[in-house]
Amino acid sequence: MDKMPKWADVLLIPLLNLVLALVVSGLVVVLIGQDPFEAMAIMVRGAVGSTYGWGYTLYYATNFIFTGLAVAVAFHAQLFNIGGEGQAQLGSLGVALVCLFVPWPHWSLALAAAIAGGALFGAAWAAIPAYLQAKRGSHIVITTIMFNFIASALLVYLLISSLKAPGMAPETARFPEATRLPFAQDVFAAIGIDWSRSPLNVSFLVGLAACWLVWLLIWRTRLGYEIRAYGQSEPAARYAGISQVKIVMVTMLISGALAGLMGINAVMGEQQRLLQDNVLGAGFVGIAVSLMGRGHPVGVLLAAILFGALYQGGAELEFETSVPREMIVVIQALVILFTGALDNMVRDPVSRMFLRWGRRKPTPQPAGD
Amino acid sequence: MDFLTVIQILDSTVRLAIPLLFACLAGLFSERAGIVDIGLEGKMLVAAFFSAAVAALTGSVWLGLLAGIAAALIFALIHGLASITFRGDQLISGVAINFLASGMTVLIAQDWFSQGGRTPSLSGTGRFNSIDLPGANALEAAHAAAESPGMGLSAIYWELLSGHTILVYVGFLAVPITWWVLFRTRFGLRLRAVGENPGAVDTAGVSVVRLRYAAVLICGLLSGLAGAYLATGLAAGFTRDMTAGRGYIALAALIFAKWRPVYALGACLLFGFLQAVSNRFNVIDLGLIEIPNAFVLALPYILTVVILAGFVGKAIPPRAGGQPYVKER
């Protein structure tokens, strides 16, 4: 396995994949008659050119951190959790219930309870597919896809019946004022920095904490070791006495809980009520984020910020040119395609190149990592 | 609920089942050859867009159909390239294809027509029009005129069997053809073998890669038909994300049917029926309990999970499904 130095695997190949995805996206922009470089400039300026842009970028990134970590944790056990969307919707429901039906004196208590509620509901929604995979061998990808649709039907039903607020729109009542999370502009104003209005809120810090905790879990605990061992080789893990049922269940519960946490950012932080579609595809973006980030929390964080910038930049692009917002979906699809499915297209030639390069020197130097 | 209402619901069952059926058979070919395809949704969507767009531009639904199939074939080739040639993850490739279709269609629709991501409405030769079976109109007129009790049954002919587009009849025909190809030809035998044990097929001197590409392309062709029917038969034009999860329902139907063509017909008719019922009634009142519409819509997914769980007959997928084939060296 010493074909390729580690930096090439961790940095070079994802970067090459990203460049390929961006080049093809640029071609798409050319095809619809726009200047790709100008489009790129607008997107970059819109995403990171102001505190307003940064606010939105990091707000979107917060969603993607949670869904990205959810996919990443499951990937470590070789489980493909494609149900982040449904788990996030149920998590949002949990957050909404906590905020609506308990009179909280202070936002910090509400946040703690909402974290528990979101995680619990998200985990519960992942529990059934996990159980069916562990005990009955039903393929987790198919069951989680089905659970996405069931979740959305459930939410539609609840929002036109028991949870519906008076009025026409299928949504809950507004959450009480005491559950409102501090926005970035409030926090920065307190220390005298001028920050534009944006939906960025303290959930971002929860997201950072989640990254650290996932790192701790996967690489510094016994459970994390078992998850990785199971993911590397299921038979070997079983010989070592690791219970398959336990790993599949626990991994999926953690994954679902992480996806469910998205609700504190989107529902509690921004919308302040439960809408019919509050996840808006973030569950699927998590797949792209996790693939780009190579399953490592730091990678996930960086990829989430990249995708947050893409979302915010895409919104600005639609505002300033005639390129519709769907450009983001295309870029996202190409990133998934090149980093996930067509990975070997880049990896094989690169590793061959390293092999040839290594052979030329008669005494290979020890790698410096 | 009178007899005519029942017939009308069954009629719309047929209309709604056909796109599912095409997509389900598409998935059947692909998965039987060991290529898992969750990109059915995306392939249907590009086919729906290009068929409607070309039909709108040229006024010919047949050219539209060809364009739709061509677009679905290109997406099928991307999936083949990723999962056969580059041995990538088939699930991830499918996810990417669904997103690519969802984004590209709106992008191109906006560029070509500037109508907020839709195509102009199709009419006349731009759509597949319904075919009246011989004597259907006369029977319907007779039914309207006379209230004789025996005439009610004639609705089965003029409402349920007659008045569909050509693609509906093609769809029903595709079921026995699929069965025949898969279970009565040498190609079908090899295709099924490549989904169970590609190593054995390779040992017998048959190219795994070529067989799998063939399967993926047939899958593209059929999902192209599904999408084209959706935009030019069922609806009159393309609207954004108009497949609305049908690709996934087709996938569910495929599992429900345990990867068999004739069962697939039954599963698609059942799921089409559920859609037709939920379209027609807001709440289904069974006397004791009321079933909300959302539950009926979620029922295909719930049923599939139950089937997958193996509580009602176990669904066993082709054994080599999802794994890239690496020839021994």
TrEMBL record, chain A:
It comes from Mesobaculum littorinae. One of its GO terms (molecular function) is transmembrane transporter activity. GO terms for cellular component: plasma membrane. Its main location: membrane. It is a multi-pass membrane protein. This is ABC transporter permease. It comes from the Bacteria. InterPro entries: ABC_transp_permease. Keywords: Cell membrane, Membrane, Transmembrane, Transmembrane helix.
Automatic annotation (TrEMBL), chain B:
It is found in: Cell membrane. InterPro entries: ABC_transp_permease (IPR001851). One of its GO terms (cellular component) is plasma membrane. GO terms for molecular function: transmembrane transporter activity. The chain crosses the membrane at residues 12-33, 45-78, 90-109, 160-182, 213-236, 248-274, 294-313. Keywords: Cell membrane, Membrane, Transmembrane, Transmembrane helix. It is a multi-pass membrane protein. It comes from the Bacteria. Its main location: membrane. PANTHER family: GUANOSINE ABC TRANSPORTER PERMEASE PROTEIN NUPQ, SUGAR ABC TRANSPORTER INTEGRAL MEMBRANE PROTEIN-RELATED. This is ABC transporter permease.
